[in-house]
Write a structure and sequence with these properties.
InterPro entries: ATPase_P-typ_cyto_dom_N, ATPase_P-typ_P_site, ATPase_P-typ_TM_dom_sf, ATPase_P-typ_transduc_dom_A_sf, ATPase_P-type_domA, HAD-like_sf, HAD_sf, P-type_ATPase_IV
Protein name: Phospholipid-transporting ATPase
Helix content: 40-55%
Mean pLDDT: 80
Low-confidence stretches: 1-12, 21-55, 822-831, 1191-1203, 1222-1248
Subunit structure: Component of a P4-ATPase flippase complex which consists of a catalytic alpha subunit ATP8B1 and an accessory beta subunit TMEM30A. The flippase ATP8B1:TMEM30A complex can form an intermediate phosphoenzyme in vitro. Also interacts with beta subunit TMEM30B.
Largest sheet: 10 strands, mixed
Number of helices: 42
Number of domains: 5
Radius of gyration: 37 Å
Subcellular location: Apical cell membrane; Cell membrane; Cell projection; Endoplasmic reticulum
Pfam family, one: PhoLip_ATPase_C
Number of strands: 37
Distance between the termini: 27 Å
Length: about 1250
C-alpha cells in the first residue's frame, strides 16, 4: 500500500522518497527566479531550454589568443572611467594587507571598535589644556599597547596568508607560448592559454581537458583540496581533441572558441560548447579539470584555461563566511554602551555640581582665583569634559585584548586535549576559531548529520537472503545455528580480502559445493552489476567504487569466489570459483536518486542475454513479475534486517530474447541522441526494460555507528541539549539509526509529516476563525500541540518540510502573483495557502514550537539548503544557541548557519572541516567539547568579566567621591602613573589567569554531572543582573576605599609629630588599599588554585610596590621633574604604622561582606556545582570504581521497522564505462595475487 504521490501540477502529499527540489540552484538564482520568473521551473528538467542558452553562454575563451581577451567588449568598469578585463589573472590573493595598507587599514578596522575610538577621542581631548585633567600619556600608553597587541596578531595572521599565496602563485607549470611549451609561474597563466600538466601536478586553473597520454584522453584526478576525497575521479577529453591535439605543433595551431557559463560556485555543473573547425561540440563537467585537484596516474595532460584565479570554482566557493559572535560578546558591547551612558550622566552631574559650587564658593574665595575671566556655566562645561577624561577608566580599554588572550588560551587547551585525539587517524581536535569558546557552554540545540557523523560510513556486508533463506547468523557448515560463531577462514580463496568478516559457514559451503544455483546467481550478480573500476597493482587489486555500499558488495562477492577482475568498454571479466569468464556488456543503466536502482544487460558466453538489477525494495517490488517467487519471505527478511538497522538492496534478474533486446536497443540509441529531454527519454526506456523482474534475494549492509554515539547522545540529553538529525538519507534508514543511537526509544510516540501538517492546519484554521485570540504581538497561547502525557518524536521529510513551511516553488509563485495583484488572496478559512507573509511566519513559529516540544527530531531527505533553513528557523524563533555538526560538503550550509559549526574529519572529505569552527574525528568528542571545555570556558569568561567590571568601577568611582571634597574640579584622586599602569600591570595578571585556568570541578565530574551545564544555557552567570551587582559592588568598595582613609586622615598626627594628611599620602593609601582589595578579591573568586595563580596575585602586589617606590624616588624626579612629581611620597607615607593599619582596615571592610555572602550562598542556597564540590572526594571514588567495571555491550532495538535502502550514493561511472574510456586496457596476462587485495571505496556525499 503506497500513498498517492505528488505530481507536477498539484499534489495531495509530497513524496517521502525524493529530495524536494534540485539543490544545484545558487541562492542568487533563486532570488532572481523568485522576483522575475513568470513560470516555475519544470520538474525534472536538467538542462535549460534552448532560448535560455544565449544568456548562459556569456563567457568566451579563444585558444592561444591572449589579445582576444583584452578587446573592449570584454572590459568592465572598475572605477569611474577606469576599465579592466573581465577575465581574472591566475594570481590569487587571500591576504588583507600589504606594506602600504597595513597601518591605515588595520587602524581603521581597530577603530571601528567603539572602545578604541572612544579612547582616541579622549586622547585628543587630553591635549586641550583647558580640560586636561590627566596627562596625555595615561591614555596613550594603554591605547598603544592595545592597538599594538591586536595589530601584531593581525600581522602574524596576514603574513601566513602572504606566504601561502606566494607559495601557490609561484608554482611552476608549462604554458604554450610562441609555439612551444615554456615553464611559467601560475601567476602568469592567462585565460585561453594551453598548458601541459604532468603526473602529481596540481591543476593551476579551471581547465578544459584536451588530451592526455592515457587511452581516449582519460585523466585521473584527486580532488582532496576540493572536497577532501582522496579517491581518484575520472575526466575525459572530447574525441575530436583527443584525436587531433596530441603533438605540440597541433596544440599551437589550436584556435577553438569556447562559449560557456560565466564563473560560478557550482562544483557539480558546467555547461558550454566548443566551436572548432566549423563544428560545435558540447562540453560538460566531465571535460573539466578544476583548480585544486591533482593529476594522478596520468603521465601528461594538455588543457585550455577557461577560468583563472578568482574566477575558478574553488575560489568562488570560498564565499563570504558569516561573521559569528557569541552572546557574551553582544552582551559585553551593550554593557560598554551602558557604561558610556553612565559616564556621561556622572560627568554631567559633577559638571553641574561644579557650576553651583563655583557660584557659591569658588568665585568668592580669593585664594582660588586663577586669573581666567570665565563664568560658572562655561567652567561647568569645561569640567564636563574634564570628568569625561578623569573617569575614562570606567570604560575598560584592556577588556577586549584580555578577552582575546583568554580565548586564544582556551583554543590551545582544546587543541592539546589528548582525550579528543583520535589515534587511528592521527587526528587531534582543532579549534579553528578563537572567538566562540564560551559559546560552547551555552548550546541548546545540536543539529547533526547522520552518515559519517553518527555512523562510520564504512560499510560491511553482514547478512543476506537468497531464495527465501536468510544467511548471516553464526552457523556451522552443516547449518547448525550457534550462539557465537568463529569467522570464516578464507584461505581457500587467494583473492579474498582477509579483513572481511562473516560468521555463516553454511553459505560458504553452499557456494563452494555449487548445489544452490540461486546462491551462485546471487554473487554472480554482485560481481557483474556495478560501476566499480579496478586497477592492477603489484600487491593486488585496487577498487574504485562510486559508494562504500558498492565497494562492500563487490568485496563480498570476491570473498565468496566471484572476483571482479577487469572491464573494458563492452566487456566485464570475473573469476567464478577459479574459472575466468568474460561477459559482453550490452547496456549499463546507471543509478540515480530518482531511479534508486541500477541495471546491466549482459550477453553470456553461451549467447544468452540477461538483465541484472539491484535497487531499493520500494522500486524493485513494483517491477517484479507476478511469477516471481519468495516475495513474502524476502520482505519479512528485509523487515528483520531493518530492525537491526542494516541497509538493504534487492537483487533480481530478467532473461531477454535477442529480438526483444534488439528492438529495445534501437529505441535506446534514439533516446541517447535526443536533443531535448534526453534524460526523460532515457528514463522511459529504462522503465520499459526493467519490468517483469525475477527476485533472487536481498543484501544487508551494516553502516556502523561510531563508538560512543548512544552514550554521548544520552549524556547531552541529560544536559538539556536537544539533538536534531538532518540527513539526506531515506526516512527508514534515518529512523532506524535514530533507534540504534538511542535518539528514539520504543516508548516515544512518533509523528510523521502528514500528522504534523494536519495539526498545523488545525491551528492555522483556528487562528483565522479566532483572530483576536491569536493576534500577533500578544502572548502566544500556552496550549501544547501534544497535550497527552509521554514522550514525542518528529520524523519529517524534505518534501513535507516544504509543504509545511510554504517553501514549494509553486506556492512561492502563487505568493508572487498575489503580490502583483494577479490573484486574490484566499478567503476560504480551510485553504492551506498563507494569506500573507505574517501568516507564513506564524506557520513557521508553530512548526518550531511543535518540534521543540518533541524529545527528538529527525529531518530526512533534506537538501543542504533545507538543513541551513531549519537551523535558521530555530535561531530566529527560539533565540537559542545552536551547534551544527557534519562531515560532508552537504553539511557546509548548516555548519555556517549555526552559531557554532563542528566538522568531523571522516569518510566524506574535509570540506565540512574547512568551513567549521571546531573539528575532530569522532562524534563522541562533542560531549567533552561541550560539557568540559565549553562549560569551563563559559564559567571562566563570566567570572573574568564580572571581576573586570568590578575592579574598574572600584578604581574609577574613587574620583567621584573625591570630587565632593575638591570643588568638583575634576582633580584625580590617584597619582597619574598609577592610573596609567593599574589595568596594565597591577591588576591584569590574576584575573587573566582565572579566565584561563579556573575550574569549579574537574573534567571527570563535569561529565558525570551533565546538569552542571544548565547555568550556561540559561545565561545565569553573566547578564545585566550580574553587571549591576558588579557595579554596586564597585560602588561599595570605592566608598570604603575613599572614606575610611579620609576619616583616618582627618585631624591626624603621625608618629613623628607631622600630619600625614596630605594629598599625596592620601593617594598612596587609597591606591595601596585598592591593589590589596582587588587582588584578594580575585583570590576569593578563584576555585582552582595553582602555583601560577598564587604567584600572579603576590607578584601583582609586589610589582605595584616595586614600581611605586621607583617612580617616587628622587633619582627619576631629577631626570623627569615635570612627569614624576610624587617625590619621596611613598617612603614617607608607608613608614607610618598608622597608615598600614588604615590600609588593613580598609581591605578588611571591603572584603568582609563578600566573604559573608559567599558563605551564606554555599551553605544555605548551594548551586549544583557547590554540591558537587562539597562531595568531590566521594564522587571521585565512585568514578574510580566505575572505571574498573566493564561497560556492557550496546544492544540494538527490537522494534519492527521498514527496510533501509543501502544504494544511496551519487551517480556512478556508467557514462565513463560505456563511452569506452575505461580505467585501463585489459592486461595481457594476470599473475597470482598476494593475500592483501585492497579495496579503496569512493566515498560519495550523502544522497545530494
Amino acid at each position: 500500500m503506497s500513498r498517492q504521490r505528488a505530481d507536477s501540477d498539484g499534489s495531495l502529499e509530497p513524496d517521502d522518497e525524493v529530495m524536494p527540489y534540485s539543490d544545484d540552484e545558487t541562492d542568487d538564482e533563486l532570488d532572481v527566479s523568485s522576483e522575475g520568473e513568470p513560470e516555475p521551473p519544470v520538474a525534472g528538467a536538467l538542462h535549460p531550454p534552448a532560448d535560455a542558452r544565449p544568456s548562459e553562454m556569456a563567457w568566451k575563451v579563444k585558444a592561444n589568443d591572449r589579445p582576444y581577451h583584452h578587446l573592449p567588449e570584454f572590459k568592465k568598469k572598475v572605477f569611474l572611467c577606469i576599465k579592466k578585463s573581465r577575465y581574472s589573472g591566475n594570481a590569487i590573493k587571500t591576504y588583507k594587507y600589504n606594506v602600504l595598507t597595513f597601518l591605515p587599514l588595520n587602524l581603521y578596522e581597530q577603530f571601528k571598535r567603539v572602545a578604541n575610538l572612544y579612547f582616541l577621542v579622549l586622547l585628543i581631548l587630553q591635549i586641550i589644556p583647558d580640560i586636561a585633567t590627566l596627562p596625555w600619556y595615561t591614555t596613550l600608553i594603554p591605547l598603544v599597547v592595545v592597538l599594538g597587541v591586536t595589530g601584531i596578531k593581525d600581522l602574524v595572521d596576514d603574513l601566513a596568508r602572504h606566504r601561502m599565496d606566494k607559495e601557490i602563485n609561484s608554482r611552476k607549470c608549462e604554458v604554450l607560448l610562441d609555439g612551444r611549451f615554456q615553464e611559467s609561474k601560475w601567476r602568469n597563466i592567462q585565460v585561453g592559454d594551453v598548458v601541459r600538466m604532468k603526473k602529481n601536478d596540481f591543476i593551476p586553473a579551471d581547465i578544459l581537458l584536451l588530451s592526455s597520454s592515457n587511452p581516449n584522453s582519460l585523466c585521473y584526478v584527486e580532488t582532496a583540496e576540493l572536497d577532501g576525497e582522496t579517491n581518484l575521479k575520472f575526466k575525459l577529453g572530447l574525441r575530436v581533441t583527443d584525436e587531433r591535439l596530441q603533438e605540440e605543433r597541433q596544440l599551437a595551431e589550436f584556435n577553438a572558441l569556447i562559449e560557456c557559463e560565466e564563473p560560478n560556485n557550482r562544483l557539480d555543473k558546467f555547461v558550454g560548447t566548443m566551436l572548432y573547425e566549423g563544428k560545435r561540440y558540447p562540453l560538460d563537467l566531465d571535460n573539466m579539470l578544476l583548480r585544486g585537484c591533482k593529476i594522478r596516474n596520468t603521465e601528461v595532460s594538455h588543457g585550455l584555461v577557461i577560468f583563472a584565479g578568482a574566477d575558478t570554482k574553488i575560489m568562488k566557493n570560498g564565499g563570504k563566511t558569516r561573521f559569528k559572535r557569541t552572546k557574551i560578546d553582544e552582551l559585553m558591547n551593550y554593557m560598554v554602551y551602558s557604561i558610556f551612558v553612565l559616564l556621561i550622566l556622572v560627568a554631567a552631574g559633577l559638571a553641574i555640581g561644579h557650576t553651583y559650587w563655583y557660584e557659591a564658593i569658588g568665585s568668592k574665595a580669593w585664594y582660588l582665583f586663577d586669573g581666567k575671566n570665565q563664568n560658572s556655566s562655561y567652567r561647568g562645561f569645561l569640567m564636563f569634559w574634564g570628568y569625561i577624561i578623569a573617569l575614562n577608566t570606567m570604560v575598560p580599554i584592556s577588556l577586549y585584548v584580555s578577552v582575546e588572550v583568554i580565548r586564544l588560551g582556551q583554543s590551545k587547551f582544546i587543541n592539546w586535549d589528548l582525550q579528543m585525539y583520535f589515534l587511528e587517524k592521527d587526528t587531534p581536535a582543532k579549534a579553528r576559531t578563537t572567538t566562540l569558546n564560551e559559546q560552547l557552554g551555552q548550546i541548546e540545540y545540536i543539529f547533526s548529520d547522520k552518515t559519517g557523523t553518527l555512523t562510520q560510513n564504512v560499510m560491511q556486508f553482514k547478512k543476506c537472503t537468497i531464495a527465501g533463506r536468510s544467511y548471516g547468523e553464526p552457523t556451522t557448515a552443516a547449518g547448525l545455528v550457534l550462539e557465537r560463531g568463529r569467522p570464516v577462514d578464507w584461505s581457500w580463496n587467494q583473492y579474498a580480502d582477509r579483513s572481511f568478516q562473516f560468521v555463516d559457514h553454511s553459505l560458504v559451503e553452499c557456494i563452494r559445493s555449487g548445489k544452490d544455483k540461486d546462491a551462485n546467481e546471487f554473487f554472480k550478480l554482485l560481481s557483474l552489476c556495478h560501476t566499480v573500476m579496478v586497477e592492477h597493482k603489484d600487491d593486488g587489486l585496487v577498487y574504485q567504487a562510486a559508494s562504500p555500499d558498492e565497494g562492500a558488495l563487490v568485496t563480498a562477492a570476491r570473498n565468496f569466489g566471484y572476483v571482479f577482475l577487469s572491464r573494458t568498454q563492452d566487456t566485464i571479466t570475473i573469476k567464478e570459483m577459479e574459472e575466468e569468464r568474460t561477459y559482453e556488456m550490452l547496456a549499463l543503466l546507471d543509478f540515480n536518486s530518482d531511479r534508486k536502482r541500477m541495471s546491466i544487460i549482459l550477453k553470456f558466453p553461451d549467447g544468452r542475454i540477461r538483465l541484472y538489477c539491484k535497487g531499493a525494495d520500494t522500486v524493485i517490488y513494483e517491477r517484479l513479475s507476478p511469477k516471481s517467487k519468495h516475495k513474502e519471505t524476502t520482505q519479512t527478511a528485509l523487515d528483520i534486517f531493518a530492525n537491526a538497522t542494516l541497509r538493504t538492496l534487492c537483487l533480481c534478474y530478467k532473461d531477454l530474447s535477442a529480438d526483444e533486446y534488439e528492438a529495445w536497443s534501437k529505441l535506446h540509441q534514439e533516446a541517447q541522441v535526443a536533443m531535448s529531454d534526453r534524460d526523460a527519454a532515457l528514463d522511459r526506456m529504462y522503465e520499459q526494460i526493467e519490468s517483469n523482474l525475477m527476485l533472487i534475494g536481498a543484501t544487508a549492509i551494516e553502516d556502523k555507528l561510531q563508538d560512543g554515539v548512544p552514550e554521548t547522545i544520552a549524556k547531552l540529553a541529560k544536559a538539556d541539549i536537544k539533538i536534531w538529525v538532518l540527513t539526506g538519507d531515506k526516512k527508514e534508514t534515518a529512523e532506524n539509526i535514530g533507534y540504534s543511537c538511542s535518539l528514539l526509544t520504543d516508548n516515544m510516540q512518533i509523528h510523521y509529516g502528514e500528522d504534523v501538517n494536519e495539526k498545523l492546519k488545525v491551528r492555522q484554521a483556528r487562528r483565522r476563525l479566532e483572530p483576536a485570540t491569536f493576534r500577533q504581538g500578544t502572548k502566544k497561547p500556552a496550549e501544547a500541540f501534544f497535550p497527552e502525557p509521554g514522550k514525542n518524536a518528529l520524523i519529517i521529510t524534505g518534501g513535507w518540510l516544504n509543504e509545511i513551511l510554504y517553501e514549494k516553488k509553486k506556492k512561492r509563485r502563487r505568493l508572487r502573483l498575489r503580490r502583483l495583484g494577479k490573484r486574490p488572496p484566499p478567503s476560504n478559512p480551510q485553504d492551506c495557502q498563507p494569506m500573507d507573509d505574517s501568516e507564513k511566519e506564524m506557520r513557521q513559529i508553530d512548526f518550531v514550537d511543535m518540534a521543540c516540544e518533541c524529545e527528538a527530531v529527525i529531518c530526512c531527505r533534506v537538501t543542504p539548503k533545507q538543513k541551513g533553513n531549519v537551523v535558521s528557523l530555530v535561531k530566529k524563533y527560539k533565540k537559542a544557541v545552536t551547534l551544527s555538526i557534519g562531515d560532508g560538503a552537504n553539511d557546509v550550509n548548516m555548519i555556517k548557519t549555526a552559531d557554532i559549526g563542528v566538522g568531523i574529519s571522516g569518510q566524506e572529505g574535509m570540506q565540512a572541516v574547512m568551513s567549521s569552527d571546531y573539528a575532530f574525528a569522532q562524534f563522541r568528542y562533542l560531549e567533552r567539547l561541550l560539557l568540559v571545555h565549553g562549560r569551563w570556558s563559559y564559567i571562566r569568561m563570566c567570572k573574568f568579566l564580572r571581576y573586570f567590571f568590578f575592579k574598574n568601577f572600584a578604581f574609577t568611582l574613587v574620583h567621584f567621591w573625591y570630587s565632593f571634597f575638591s570643588g568638583f574640579s575634576s582633580q584625580v584622586a590617584y597619582e597619574d602613573w598609577f592610573i596609567t599602569l593599574y589595568n596594565l600591570c597591577y591588576s591584569s595578571l590574576p584575573v587573566l589567569l582565572v579566565g584561563l585556568l579556573d575550574q569549579d570541578v574537574n573534567d571527570k565530574l563535569s561529565l558525570k554531572f551533565p546538569k552542571l551545564y544548565l547555568p550556561g544555557q540559561q545565561g545565569a552567570l553573566f547578564n545585566y543582573r550580574n553587571f549591576f551587582i558588579s557595579l554596586f559592588h564597585g560602588i561599595f568598595v570605592s566608598l570604603v576605599i575613599f572614606f575610611i582613609p579620609y576619616g583616618a586622615f582627618l585631624q591626624t598626627m603621625g608618629q613623628d609629630g607631622e600630619a600625614p594628611s596630605d594629598y599625596q599620602s592620601f593617594a598612596i593609601v587609597t591606591a595601596s588599599s585598592l591593589i590589596f582589595t582587588v587582588n584578594l578579591q580575585i583570590s576569593l573568586e578563584t576555585s582552582y588554585w595553582t602555583f601560577v595563580n598564587c604567584f600572579a596575585v603576590l607578584g601583582s602586589i609586589a610589582i605595584y610596590f616595586g614600581i611605586m617606590f621607583d617612580i617616587h624616588s628622587a633619582g627619576i624626579h631629577v631626570i623627569f621633574p615635570s612627569v614624576f612629581t610624587f617625590t619621596g611620597a611613598a617612603s614617607n607615607a608607608l613608614r607610618q604604622p598608622y597608615l598600614w593599619l588604615t590600609i588593613i582596615l580598609t581591605v578588611g571592610i571591603s572584603l568582609l561582606p563578600v566573604i559573608c555572602i559567599q558563605f551564606l550562598h554555599k551553605s544555605i542556597w548551594p548551586s549544583v556545582g557547590d554540591k558537587v564540590q562539597r562531595n568531590r572526594k566521594k564522587y571521585e571514588m565512585e568514578l574510580l570504581q566505575e572505571e574498573k567495571k566493564k561497560a556492557p555491550a550496546f544492544e540494538r532495538g527490537r522494534r519492527s521497522r521498514r527496510s533501509a535502502y543501502a544504494f544511496s550514493h551519487s551517480r556512478g561511472y556508467a557514462d565513463l564505462i560505456s563511452s569506452g574510456r575505461s580505467i585501463r586496457r585489459r592486461p595481457a596476462a594476470r599473475g597470482v595475487f598476494q593475500e592483501s587485495i585492497r579495496e579503496v571505496p569512493q566515498t560519495a556525499a550523502e544522497n545530494i
